[in-house]
Amino acid sequence: MRRTNVESNYVILSSVLNACVNIPALEQGKQVHAHVIKSGIDIYVSVGNALVDLYGKCGCVEDSRIAFDTIDARNVVSWGALIAGYVQNGYNEVAMDIYGQMRQEGIEASEYIFSSVLKACASLAGLEKGRQIHSHVIKTRFDSDVYVGSALVDMYGKSGTIDDACQLFDKMPQRNVVSWNAMIASCAQHGHGKKALSFFEKMQFDGFMPNYITFVCLLTACSHAGLVEKGMCYFNSMTRDYGIVPGAEHYACIVDLLGRAGLLVEAEEFMKSIPLKPTASMWGALLGACRVHGNTELGRRAAECLFELDPHHSGTHVLLSNIYAAASRWDDVAKARRVMKDIGMKKEPGRSWIGVKNKEHSFYANDKTHPLTKEIYALLENWSEQMKKVGYASDTNYVLLNVEEKQKEDFLYYHSEKLALAFGLLSIPPGIPIRIMKNLRMCGDCHTYIKFISGIVGREIVVRDTNRFHHFRGNTCSCGDYW
Question: What's this model's pTM, rounded to 2 decimal places?
């Protein structure tokens, strides 16, 4: 068209930019952007919106923001494209701030915007914010929209309230595959494996065909619940019954399924048999299983393969060091830590946080920086005698340091989860669940400790770590001690 000197207009250029988004083709989009500026067509809101969408979906959020700021007459589509770009690229807190700015300017959200901000809440596990947005959804009557409804199910599931997710799902006037996947994924993250399988069967009974994502959710559910035979059956049925070719995510789920069950040799043999080159996710699942089940040699081999794929990933170095420490191979621990030091790598410290009155309170092990430190430590001391009476004893196997037994007990007693729990019980009224987030896998001693505390104080305690949710009630955990 340009070679024949046919003049372009804002309709044509908007369409071309949208095509660049769908491919995606960032460089060609930039060339079109330059032509837009030269032609003076950037004054049109539809062109500006297409540019915001292009840069956001191609990972250039700063350029997306610049394009957004140049639009004089921004509309709801402009805001939606900007928010979606930030969410897609993991800038969830920024996306929530932009949503707040939009509301301050009096712009009513669309179903597309609600879906995006609910996804941000799900990633942040921001339950209170998610509930506020849910109320906005109801007021604007978008709660019957299938995509908004699916986003709400996903948000409540990932924020630790599986019961709310189930209730919303049951009330949805219509569902699609995304809705079913959200429900199965929520069950998986909460360890309700059999419930996830039940939803999978109901999904097909209602006439919905599972897709690639469905099987990722389903296999994850089997892994978290220890349903090895079921998981293998579903995996083998993918191509045979549904025509879905397994991808790297599915293979990683099977490695995790076998590894969690202690079938480490089988997991390694499975990786050797697959048509793909094993990915970092697969080796990472195997390495984590070796840490849990104490297989030092296989753990070393898995770590070496991960070093080849990503030599600067701190998690691999830390896990290998922990595997050596659990086996009391202190020379190898020192070597692993020396390698980390030489390449300038630092271990991510364990952190737990809890939200009280819309404010986040963070804690590290042995933390004494919180304003209520005195009260928190006094409460932990008060629990000490009660815990011993009901049979709790510190499991010092989870202290991976070459120190005396008494020092190990001291290290355990002030882990970040316990400090956050004490603060929560001091600050949150009776009858309201205590919700704690953890940036690492919860240690086994803290898991046992919180089970006992849930019985002593008669409260529901929910902990989300990097693997899943743990719901503690009456001396038990929803995971059944399998995670």
Answer: 0.88
